[in-house]
Design goal:
- This protein is of the alpha/beta class and 250 residues long.
- The protein has a single domain, classed as Vaccinia Virus protein VP39 (Rossmann fold, 3-Layer(aba) Sandwich).
- An 8-stranded mixed beta sheet has the order 1-4-3-2-5-6-8-7, with helices on both faces.
- Helix 5 links the parallel strand 3 and strand 4.
- It binds S-adenosylmethionine (SAM).
- The site of S-adenosylmethionine (SAM) has 19 residues, from strand 3 and helix 9.
Length: 250
């Protein structure tokens, strides 16, 4: 059975003893050398969604986008190339990018504004706390590109591509929705293939060298990310996995 993350606490939350995402206001941070991007983040406005305001949209993301459309989620948007490109390619969908770093949130926001994109938002939030924000079966598509690998064994508990997250995601995804993963860390693919064995996903395709052998989806449906480009330039393989949420049995 799939469950929300909160019913299924993840190792990272237990270690940090932080089950809720904290998004302090600049005046609450008491830091003279405050990162200028922190202030920019709180004052920027559209298309930035401030983390502490985001819970109001649970079950009502249409209010944030000011229109009804299927909701796609990108986890760890980085510089925003993917979010910008996918929102442009798919204007009929609402695109929500999640990113924890202030500077990157502002970079993404600027990209979206410069391209006059109306169907994307960038939210500052912690991936580990995403279950605050979505209802069961509410995500029409999920994209996870080059999540932090945490390559050392003692760091493995920090990897988002593991059982608790995959379990929650199956709960949050709509029937038939796809979860597309690109990574430079092959272990992510092996782990996911193993942990989903008893979860309601179908593997639609996997590639262990997507730029040479092809992605398990049409190239026209994809956008090269910043990290992906770095790995291509170094002639290193990109691994890709395409999952589909199975239809719920009523
Ligand atoms: C390796 S980068 C990949 C960025 C982008 N997806 C790409 O492919 O170029 C991982 C991104 O995830 C973000 N990130 C890491 N941990 C996060 C968390 N707990 N919640 C939200 N974003 C996180 C990082 O700040 C970073 O931008």
């Amino acid at each position: 059975m799939t469950r929300p993350l909160k019913d299924n606490p993840h190792p990272q939350a237990i270690i940090s003893k932080r089950l809720d995402f904290l998004d302090p206001l600049p005046e609450e941070m008491h830091n003279e050398d405050l990162n200028p991007y922190v202030k920019a983040y709180f004052t920027h406005g559209h298309p930035v969604v401030v983390g502490r305001d985001a819970k109001q949209y649970k079950g009502n993301w249409e209010a944030c986008f000011q229109r009804q459309a299927p909701l796609c989620l990108e986890i760890g948007s980085g510089n925003g190339f993917f979010l910008e490109g996918m929102a442009q390619k798919n204007p009929e969908l609402n695109w929500l990018g999640v990113e924890i770093r202030y500077k990157r949130v502002i970079m993404v926001a600027k990209k979206l504004q410069e391209s006059n994109i109306e169907n994307a938002r960038i939210l500052r939030y912690d991936n580990w706390c995403l279950d605050d924000l979505f209802e069961e079966g509410s995500l029409a598509g999920v994209y996870c590109n080059h999540p932090d690998p945490w390559t050392k064994k003692r760091q493995a508990h920090k990897r988002i591509l593991a059982k608790p997250f995959a379990n929650w995601m199956a709960w949050a995804m709509a029937d038939g929705a796809e979860w597309r993963i690109k990574t430079d860390f092959e272990t992510h693919i092996d782990t996911m293939l193993k942990v989903i064995e008893d979860l309601p996903y179908t593997v639609l395709g996997v590639s262990r060298d997507a730029h040479r052998n092809g992605f398990p989806w049409d190239n026209a449906e994809d956008v090269t990310t910043n990290y992906e480009r770095k790995f291509i330039e170094r002639n290193l393989p990109i691994y890709a996995l395409r999952l589909q949420r199975q239809v719920r049995q009523s």
